[in-house]
Amino acid sequence: MSGSDLQQLARWTAMQRLLAGRVLLRVAEELPDEAAATLRESAGALRGSAQAWQKSATVWHRIVDIADPRAHPKLPAPSYEVVRRGEVVRLPQVIPHPATVIAHSAAVRVGQLLYGPEWRPEAATRPDPRGGSEILADARGTGGLASTLYRLPAAGWQLALAAPQAVSLERGGLVTDVFERQAPTGRRNQRFRPIHSQQLEALAHPYKAVLPAEQASAESLLNVAQQAGAPVPRALLDAGAHRSLAAGAGWGQARKAAMPAQAGLRTPQPQVRVRRRAL
Hints:
- Helix content is about 60%, strand content about 5%.
- The chain contains eleven helices and three strands; from the N terminus they run ααβαααααββαααα.
- A three-stranded antiparallel beta sheet has the order 1-2-3, with no helix packed on it.
Protein backbone atom coordinates (compact mmCIF):
# COMPACT_ATOMS: atom_id res chain seq x y z
CA MET A 1 0.00 0.00 0.00
CA SER A 2 1.51 3.29 -1.12
CA GLY A 3 1.25 6.79 0.30
CA SER A 4 -1.19 7.73 -2.45
CA ASP A 5 -3.32 4.71 -1.55
CA LEU A 6 -3.42 5.76 2.09
CA GLN A 7 -4.45 9.29 1.17
CA GLN A 8 -7.17 8.18 -1.26
CA LEU A 9 -8.36 5.49 1.15
CA ALA A 10 -8.87 8.09 3.88
CA ARG A 11 -10.79 10.41 1.53
CA TRP A 12 -13.15 7.72 0.24
CA THR A 13 -13.68 6.41 3.77
CA ALA A 14 -14.57 9.91 4.97
CA MET A 15 -17.08 10.22 2.12
CA GLN A 16 -18.63 6.88 3.11
CA ARG A 17 -19.27 8.13 6.63
CA LEU A 18 -20.76 11.44 5.45
CA LEU A 19 -23.10 9.70 3.01
CA ALA A 20 -24.10 7.08 5.58
CA GLY A 21 -24.94 9.84 8.05
CA ARG A 22 -27.10 11.59 5.46
CA VAL A 23 -28.89 8.31 4.77
CA LEU A 24 -29.77 8.00 8.44
CA LEU A 25 -30.93 11.61 8.64
CA ARG A 26 -33.12 11.12 5.59
CA VAL A 27 -34.73 8.03 7.07
CA ALA A 28 -35.19 9.77 10.43
CA GLU A 29 -37.46 12.34 8.78
CA GLU A 30 -40.18 9.69 8.37
CA LEU A 31 -39.85 7.88 11.72
CA PRO A 32 -41.36 8.53 15.18
CA ASP A 33 -39.47 10.83 17.48
CA GLU A 34 -37.78 8.15 19.62
CA ALA A 35 -36.54 6.09 16.68
CA ALA A 36 -35.54 9.22 14.78
CA ALA A 37 -33.46 10.48 17.72
CA THR A 38 -31.44 7.24 17.73
CA LEU A 39 -30.74 7.55 14.02
CA ARG A 40 -29.70 11.17 14.37
CA GLU A 41 -27.31 10.18 17.15
CA SER A 42 -25.73 7.57 14.87
CA ALA A 43 -25.48 10.14 12.09
CA GLY A 44 -23.58 12.44 14.44
CA ALA A 45 -21.16 9.63 15.33
CA LEU A 46 -20.56 8.91 11.65
CA ARG A 47 -19.91 12.60 11.06
CA GLY A 48 -17.22 12.46 13.73
CA SER A 49 -15.64 9.47 12.01
CA ALA A 50 -15.68 11.30 8.69
CA GLN A 51 -13.91 14.30 10.21
CA ALA A 52 -11.23 12.08 11.74
CA TRP A 53 -10.61 10.28 8.45
CA GLN A 54 -10.53 13.56 6.52
CA LYS A 55 -7.91 14.91 8.90
CA SER A 56 -5.77 11.84 8.31
CA ALA A 57 -5.97 12.54 4.57
CA THR A 58 -5.15 16.24 4.97
CA VAL A 59 -1.75 15.59 6.58
CA TRP A 60 -0.60 14.02 3.30
CA HIS A 61 -0.77 17.43 1.64
CA ARG A 62 2.55 18.23 -0.10
CA ILE A 63 3.91 14.75 0.57
CA VAL A 64 4.58 12.55 -2.45
CA ASP A 65 5.22 8.84 -2.69
CA ILE A 66 7.81 8.61 -5.47
CA ALA A 67 6.78 5.02 -6.23
CA ASP A 68 3.13 6.02 -6.69
CA PRO A 69 2.80 9.78 -7.29
CA ARG A 70 -0.89 9.80 -8.13
CA ALA A 71 -1.39 12.41 -5.40
CA HIS A 72 1.15 15.20 -5.78
CA PRO A 73 1.33 19.02 -5.77
CA LYS A 74 0.87 20.75 -9.08
CA LEU A 75 4.26 20.85 -10.75
CA PRO A 76 5.44 23.69 -12.99
CA ALA A 77 5.86 23.08 -16.70
CA PRO A 78 9.39 21.91 -17.61
CA SER A 79 11.70 24.55 -18.99
CA TYR A 80 13.07 24.51 -22.53
CA GLU A 81 16.51 23.49 -21.30
CA VAL A 82 15.12 20.53 -19.37
CA VAL A 83 13.16 19.37 -22.40
CA ARG A 84 16.16 19.84 -24.72
CA ARG A 85 18.36 17.71 -22.46
CA GLY A 86 15.76 14.95 -22.44
CA GLU A 87 15.26 15.07 -18.68
CA VAL A 88 11.45 15.11 -18.85
CA VAL A 89 9.99 11.82 -17.66
CA ARG A 90 6.46 10.54 -17.34
CA LEU A 91 5.07 9.82 -13.91
CA PRO A 92 4.55 6.08 -13.35
CA GLN A 93 1.04 4.73 -13.76
CA VAL A 94 0.27 2.59 -10.71
CA ILE A 95 -2.75 0.37 -10.16
CA PRO A 96 -4.59 1.36 -6.96
CA HIS A 97 -4.42 -0.98 -3.98
CA PRO A 98 -7.50 -3.25 -3.60
CA ALA A 99 -8.37 -1.53 -0.31
CA THR A 100 -8.61 1.80 -2.13
CA VAL A 101 -10.83 0.29 -4.81
CA ILE A 102 -13.11 -1.25 -2.18
CA ALA A 103 -13.35 2.07 -0.31
CA HIS A 104 -14.36 3.83 -3.53
CA SER A 105 -16.93 1.16 -4.35
CA ALA A 106 -18.44 1.36 -0.87
CA ALA A 107 -18.79 5.15 -1.17
CA VAL A 108 -20.55 4.71 -4.52
CA ARG A 109 -22.96 2.14 -3.11
CA VAL A 110 -23.91 4.24 -0.08
CA GLY A 111 -24.32 7.28 -2.31
CA GLN A 112 -26.57 5.39 -4.70
CA LEU A 113 -28.69 4.25 -1.77
CA LEU A 114 -29.21 7.92 -0.93
CA TYR A 115 -29.40 9.53 -4.37
CA GLY A 116 -30.35 6.71 -6.75
CA PRO A 117 -28.53 4.27 -9.02
CA GLU A 118 -27.31 6.95 -11.42
CA TRP A 119 -25.27 8.86 -8.82
CA ARG A 120 -21.49 9.02 -9.08
CA PRO A 121 -19.01 10.84 -6.80
CA GLU A 122 -17.55 12.63 -9.82
CA ALA A 123 -20.92 14.22 -10.74
CA ALA A 124 -20.86 18.00 -10.85
CA THR A 125 -24.37 18.32 -9.41
CA ARG A 126 -26.03 16.49 -6.54
CA PRO A 127 -29.56 15.19 -7.13
CA ASP A 128 -32.35 15.31 -4.59
CA PRO A 129 -32.16 12.46 -2.04
CA ARG A 130 -34.61 9.61 -2.20
CA GLY A 131 -37.44 9.29 0.28
CA GLY A 132 -36.82 7.64 3.61
CA SER A 133 -39.43 4.93 2.99
CA GLU A 134 -37.81 4.12 -0.36
CA ILE A 135 -34.41 3.79 1.29
CA LEU A 136 -35.81 1.52 4.01
CA ALA A 137 -37.48 -0.66 1.39
CA ASP A 138 -34.12 -1.30 -0.27
CA ALA A 139 -32.34 -1.78 3.06
CA ARG A 140 -35.02 -4.12 4.49
CA GLY A 141 -35.99 -1.89 7.36
CA THR A 142 -34.19 0.13 9.98
CA GLY A 143 -32.48 -2.91 11.46
CA GLY A 144 -31.18 -4.07 8.10
CA LEU A 145 -29.92 -0.57 7.31
CA ALA A 146 -28.09 -0.24 10.63
CA SER A 147 -26.54 -3.71 10.45
CA THR A 148 -25.31 -3.03 6.92
CA LEU A 149 -23.84 0.38 7.71
CA TYR A 150 -22.21 -1.11 10.81
CA ARG A 151 -19.73 -2.88 8.55
CA LEU A 152 -18.16 0.45 7.59
CA PRO A 153 -16.84 1.53 11.02
CA ALA A 154 -16.12 -2.07 12.02
CA ALA A 155 -13.72 -2.43 9.10
CA GLY A 156 -12.51 1.17 9.42
CA TRP A 157 -11.30 0.51 12.97
CA GLN A 158 -9.00 -2.22 11.71
CA LEU A 159 -7.79 -0.08 8.82
CA ALA A 160 -6.93 2.76 11.18
CA LEU A 161 -5.01 0.39 13.44
CA ALA A 162 -2.97 -0.95 10.52
CA ALA A 163 -2.38 2.43 8.85
CA PRO A 164 0.56 3.62 11.02
CA GLN A 165 2.47 0.46 10.18
CA ALA A 166 1.79 1.05 6.48
CA VAL A 167 3.05 4.63 6.84
CA SER A 168 6.26 3.37 8.45
CA LEU A 169 6.84 0.87 5.65
CA GLU A 170 6.53 3.62 3.03
CA ARG A 171 8.93 6.02 4.73
CA GLY A 172 11.82 5.40 2.33
CA GLY A 173 9.79 6.56 -0.68
CA LEU A 174 8.10 9.64 0.80
CA VAL A 175 9.37 13.10 -0.13
CA THR A 176 8.16 16.65 0.52
CA ASP A 177 8.77 20.15 -0.77
CA VAL A 178 8.09 21.81 2.60
CA PHE A 179 11.59 23.06 3.38
CA GLU A 180 11.32 23.39 7.15
CA ARG A 181 10.32 19.74 7.39
CA GLN A 182 12.74 18.21 4.95
CA ALA A 183 15.41 15.81 6.13
CA PRO A 184 18.95 17.25 5.75
CA THR A 185 20.76 16.01 2.65
CA GLY A 186 24.02 16.83 0.94
CA ARG A 187 22.27 18.05 -2.19
CA ARG A 188 20.95 21.54 -2.72
CA ASN A 189 18.52 23.16 -5.12
CA GLN A 190 16.19 20.19 -4.97
CA ARG A 191 12.47 20.82 -4.71
CA PHE A 192 11.67 17.44 -3.13
CA ARG A 193 13.67 15.81 -0.36
CA PRO A 194 13.00 12.87 2.02
CA ILE A 195 10.53 13.65 4.78
CA HIS A 196 11.71 14.41 8.29
CA SER A 197 11.03 12.04 11.20
CA GLN A 198 8.63 14.60 12.70
CA GLN A 199 6.66 14.64 9.46
CA LEU A 200 6.46 10.84 9.53
CA GLU A 201 5.06 11.01 13.05
CA ALA A 202 2.54 13.62 11.92
CA LEU A 203 1.32 11.23 9.21
CA ALA A 204 0.62 8.42 11.67
CA HIS A 205 -0.75 10.50 14.56
CA PRO A 206 -4.27 11.31 13.18
CA TYR A 207 -5.16 7.62 13.00
CA LYS A 208 -5.21 7.54 16.80
CA ALA A 209 -8.27 9.80 16.70
CA VAL A 210 -9.93 7.58 14.10
CA LEU A 211 -10.00 4.54 16.41
CA PRO A 212 -12.39 5.90 19.11
CA ALA A 213 -14.51 7.65 16.47
CA GLU A 214 -15.03 4.40 14.56
CA GLN A 215 -15.79 2.52 17.77
CA ALA A 216 -18.42 5.11 18.70
CA SER A 217 -20.02 4.84 15.24
CA ALA A 218 -20.10 1.05 15.34
CA GLU A 219 -21.59 1.01 18.85
CA SER A 220 -24.25 3.52 17.90
CA LEU A 221 -25.31 1.54 14.82
CA LEU A 222 -25.44 -1.67 16.86
CA ASN A 223 -27.81 0.06 19.28
CA VAL A 224 -30.07 1.03 16.37
CA ALA A 225 -30.08 -2.55 15.09
CA GLN A 226 -30.79 -3.91 18.57
CA GLN A 227 -33.74 -1.58 19.07
CA ALA A 228 -35.10 -2.66 15.69
CA GLY A 229 -34.77 -6.34 16.64
CA ALA A 230 -32.18 -7.10 13.97
CA PRO A 231 -29.33 -9.37 15.19
CA VAL A 232 -25.77 -8.62 14.08
CA PRO A 233 -23.91 -11.90 14.73
CA ARG A 234 -20.70 -10.72 13.09
CA ALA A 235 -20.34 -8.07 15.82
CA LEU A 236 -19.09 -10.77 18.22
CA LEU A 237 -16.41 -11.81 15.74
CA ASP A 238 -15.41 -8.20 15.16
CA ALA A 239 -15.14 -7.57 18.90
CA GLY A 240 -12.87 -10.60 19.31
CA ALA A 241 -10.69 -9.52 16.39
CA HIS A 242 -10.44 -5.99 17.77
CA ARG A 243 -9.40 -7.23 21.20
CA SER A 244 -6.77 -9.49 19.69
CA LEU A 245 -5.34 -6.73 17.51
CA ALA A 246 -5.38 -4.17 20.30
CA ALA A 247 -3.65 -6.57 22.71
CA GLY A 248 -0.93 -7.18 20.13
CA ALA A 249 -0.56 -3.44 19.49
CA GLY A 250 -0.99 -3.96 15.77
CA TRP A 251 -1.36 -6.47 12.96
CA GLY A 252 2.19 -7.81 12.86
CA GLN A 253 2.39 -8.56 16.59
CA ALA A 254 -1.04 -10.21 16.62
CA ARG A 255 -0.04 -12.55 13.80
CA LYS A 256 3.19 -13.54 15.54
CA ALA A 257 1.31 -14.22 18.78
CA ALA A 258 -1.04 -16.60 16.96
CA MET A 259 1.75 -18.76 15.55
CA PRO A 260 2.63 -20.77 18.74
CA ALA A 261 -1.00 -21.85 19.12
CA GLN A 262 -0.99 -23.20 15.58
CA ALA A 263 2.18 -25.23 16.20
CA GLY A 264 0.27 -27.80 18.29
CA LEU A 265 -2.04 -28.77 15.43
CA ARG A 266 -1.43 -32.09 13.70
CA THR A 267 -2.76 -32.75 10.23
CA PRO A 268 -1.91 -35.28 7.52
CA GLN A 269 -2.25 -32.60 4.87
CA PRO A 270 1.00 -31.10 3.51
CA GLN A 271 1.79 -27.69 4.91
CA VAL A 272 1.56 -24.75 2.52
CA ARG A 273 3.58 -21.64 3.11
CA VAL A 274 1.59 -18.49 2.59
CA ARG A 275 3.48 -15.42 1.57
CA ARG A 276 2.56 -12.52 3.81
CA ARG A 277 1.55 -9.26 2.29
CA ALA A 278 1.79 -6.04 4.24
CA LEU A 279 -1.36 -3.93 4.34
